[in-house]
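Methods — Computational structure assignment.
A single polypeptide chain was analysed. Its primary sequence is given first, followed by the predicted tertiary structure written as structure tokens.
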Amino acid sequence: MKNFSNSPFNYENVIHLVEINDYKGALEEIERHISSSEDYDNLAFAYMNCGFINTKLRDYSSAEIDFSKAISFEEKFDILIGRSKDISLNGRSNARYKCHDYKGAIDDKRKAKKIRLLEQLKYAEDKSNLLDYKNILLGTFDQFELDYKNNLLIKISSLEKPKYDLIEDYKKVINEKRKQEVINSLEKISDLKYEIGDYKGSIKAIRRSEKYYS
């Protein structure tokens, strides 16, 4: 079988399909490529992209399966090059939330947070940056040299925002310090609800806190 990194996979073409909202076409393009790959890192990346595309298609059950495959391949590595392992976990958390698996959703969020902290501690002296889930939510990519591969990830992993959101209005009238205070408060609420077994309340609180990132 061909190695993913050396095979003629056209990320630019997939980006084009995504930009014209042909998500099924983009999914088929990536899935064809998966069948010719045996590189674990690139398989993880491919399945993660499939997960995000299936999320766009609102096929959350398939998205959860794709993210689980990505996570299983990522677990074979101590650290990934260029991106954090928290992206796939957060992607699966969102899919599980849509499937009403609130315990699975919050467990993934908590695991993603721990993994990101470990990455930051272990590689504190490494000046290179990892693209992570928070970067995606914030849209802070100036510090990264984005190739077609990461541009694809960014385009398909962005979350849909509701048309009317009171939090968006509230964020406009508070400063960064207040935003951080709200985030910290919601994270504490999430932890407390998790401890008493209110997994739905726990995941809702943490998802609400993420709306204050940007």
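Note: The two ends are 42 Å apart (CA to CA).
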